[in-house]
Predict the structure.
Amino acid sequence: MQTDFIGPPSVQVGPTPAGVFAGFDAKLAMGTVTATWRSNAEGGLGFYQVYASKLVGGPYVPINGTLTSPMGDSHVYTASFPFPKEIGKRKVFLKVKATDMDGTEWWTQPVKVVRRTEP
């Protein structure tokens, strides 16, 4: 059985584009936090920056020295910095923000980093 197509053609052709981020994690060792993220598509991206907060819901503030230029689709990035004790004495939540050249922003999901208490 054959039917005629009725209606306007679809504007979208092909798959839905992937988000900016493919993954994000952070680890703490010897007082230094290493944030690691992987990009998907970076067309028009201006920069990345790591942000921290005492609370999972924010407010988030930028971590100095973590501004990172894009290096291409599917690239793995790392930013290392001292544990931000001024934000949280024992734990902080981290996110990475990607900012496009036109000012559009994308955020990773938050990751919790916990500092062990000294004996």
Observations:
- Confidence is low (pLDDT under 50) at residues 12-17.
- The beta strands are 21-29, 32-39, 45-53, 61-62, 76-82, 91-100, 105-107, 111-114.
- The radius of gyration is 19 Å.
